[in-house]
């Protein structure tokens, strides 16, 4: 029952909410301009239940809930700006909804604050060279108190005078001071570009790994073999070992500690953590309510980063730097929702709401792509109409629609295939 709720019912509910918000954006602007909207449907297919309001709109719940639509009887005779605003209303609603959700959650439930423990150290990083170990806790860095992990750490390292930063740490109850070399380390940006960033070379608490991302364990090659990775990790319970993880150019060796208690799920194939390497107990995350200004800033940044990453993945797929496995379809959404739901047992509902917000941003952003099946496609045609003084011919629209449908169909099939194969691979 729990599996069905987390991996089937909850994903359907979340998709229904996010897509309904999108369609509501179209509906509200159409209604504002008194454009007829005969149907607003949550889902597709045969109507299960519904009602008709005073304006003649039929509100209904349909039998297939993965999606929804609103019928807008707009015509070429309607003002161009009006049609454009109706088209952009859906994506805009998704962005606004995501920001409002995260602002409310951050102000009431709180924003997650993770204790500044080190869970893994890059063998190429300065922290490893300075003698830092997994599960060391940073008290101060560059003379500044570090009560929990925060983005300010990156600025402290970036702005460190000279080639070292002084860190005060706690290890097994004993305070120590380390002078850590800060190095320019290779990173890959959202669009596949290479750049260098000053770093200590550490991973902080809060980040766990899928076994499918583990390339080697204590010198044993486990690339593409989650079962072997699992058995090798189990052999090294309670030890500090070198684990290689990451994709492509970002593969790297890290020193980490394999905690037997945190990873006992590896011994039970029915455990939700059976396919994960747990580096940190997420139940130790604190949630601290933040003021409106900070919550708004964080929410806007979340929307920006989510949009940027989505655009980056699409760009890298087009130029051949990534494959469609980096985009998720319905199976991936179901799996991610289930995994996030599992986390709520330990850290509350914050991450469910964050997942909803990110999904809403992604749906809004993707719908702005200039493909005729999306809102961005309508905006593209409206832009052409604004320049030419008349809409594109039906013949031109037909060609563009045909090519776009084939592109979307092929991409959907590839994503669906990768979704399923990623879930059934060992």
Please describe the topology of this protein:
Elements: H1 2-32, E1 39-52, E2 58-70, H2 80-108, E3 111-113, E4 118-122, H3 126-129, E5 137-141, E6 144-145, H4 152-158, E7 164-171, E8 174-181, E9 183-188, E10 194-199, E11 202-204, E12 209-210, E13 214-217, E14 220-221, H5 226-235, E15 240-245, E16 252-257, E17 276-277, E18 286-288, H6 292-318, H7 330-347, H8 350-366, H9 375-388, H10 394-424
Antiparallel strand pairs: 1-2, 3-18, 4-11, 4-16, 5-6, 5-7, 7-8, 9-10, 12-17, 13-14, 13-15, 15-16
Helix pairs in contact: 1-2, 1-7, 1-8, 2-6, 2-8, 2-9, 6-8, 7-8
In short:
With about 425 residues, the chain is an alpha+beta fold.
Give structural notes.
- This protein has 2 domains: 2-37 and 72-109 and 340-424, no CATH class; 113-284, Roll (Pdz3 Domain), CATH 2.30.42.10.
- It contains 10 helices and 18 strands.
- Helix content is 44%, strand content 23%.
- α1 (2-32) packs across α8, α2 runs antiparallel to α9 and α7 runs antiparallel to α8.
- The chain has helices at 2-32, 80-108, 126-129, 152-158, 226-235, 292-318, 330-347, 350-366, 375-388, 394-424, and strands at 39-52, 58-70, 111-113, 118-122, 137-141, 144-145, 164-171, 174-181, 183-188, 194-199, 202-204, 209-210, 214-217, 220-221, 240-245, 252-257, 276-277, 286-288.
- It starts with a helix and ends with a helix.
- Residues 329-334 and 415-426 have low confidence and may be disordered.
- The strands form 6 sheets. The chain has a 6-stranded antiparallel sheet.
- It is an alpha+beta fold and 426 residues long.
């Amino acid at each position: 029952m729990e599996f069905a709720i987390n991996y089937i019912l909850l994903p359907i509910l979340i998709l229904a909410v996010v897509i309904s918000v999108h369609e509501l954006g179209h509906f509200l602007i159409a209604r504002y301009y008194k454009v007829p909207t005969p149907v607003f449907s949550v889902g597709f297919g045969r109507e299960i239940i519904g009602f008709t309001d005073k304006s003649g709109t039929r509100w209904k719940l349909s039998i297939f809930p993965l999606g929804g639509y609103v019928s807008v009887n707009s015509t070429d005779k309607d003002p161009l700006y009006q049609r454009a605003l109706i088209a952009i209303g859906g994506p805009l609603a998704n962005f606004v909804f995501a920001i409002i959700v995260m602002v409310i959650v951050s102000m009431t439930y709180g924003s997650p604050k993770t204790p500044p423990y080190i869970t893994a150290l890059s063998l190429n990083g300065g922290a490893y060279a300075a003698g830092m170990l997994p599960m060391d806790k940073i008290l101060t860095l560059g003379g500044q108190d570090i009560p929990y992990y925060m983005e300010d750490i990156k600025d402290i390292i970036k702005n460190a005078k000279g080639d070292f930063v002084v860190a005060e740490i706690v290890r097994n109850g004993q305070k120590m001071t380390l002078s850590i070399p800060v190095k320019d380390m290779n990173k890959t940006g959202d669009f596949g570009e290479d750049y260098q960033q000053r770093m200590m070379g550490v991973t902080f608490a809060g980040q766990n790994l899928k076994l499918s991302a583990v390339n080697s364990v204590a010198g044993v090659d486990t690339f593409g073999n989650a079962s072997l990775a699992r058995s090798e990790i189990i052999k090294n319970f309670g030890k500090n070992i070198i684990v290689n993880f990451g994709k492509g150019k970002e593969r790297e060796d890290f020193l980490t500690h394999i905690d037997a208690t945190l990873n006992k799920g590896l011994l039970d194939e029915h455990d939700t953590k059976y396919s994960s390497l747990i580096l940190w107990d997420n139940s130790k995350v604190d949630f601290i309510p933040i003021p409106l200004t900070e919550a708004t800033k964080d929410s806007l940044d979340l929307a920006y980063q989510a949009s940027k990453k989505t655009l980056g993945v699409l760009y890298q797929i087009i130029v051949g730097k990534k494959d469609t496995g980096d985009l998720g379809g319905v199976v991936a959404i179901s799996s991610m929702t289930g995994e996030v739901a599992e986390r709520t047992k330990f850290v509350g509902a914050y991450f469910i709401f964050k997942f909803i917000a990110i999904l809403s941003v992604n749906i809004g952003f993707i719908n702005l792509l200039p493909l005729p099946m999306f809102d961005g496609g309508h905006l593209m045609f409206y832009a052409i109409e604004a320049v030419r003084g008349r809409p594109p011919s039906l013949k031109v629209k037909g060609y563009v629609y045909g090519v776009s449908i084939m592109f979307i169909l092929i991409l959907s099939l590839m994503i669906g295939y990768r979704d399923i194969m990623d879930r059934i691979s060992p």
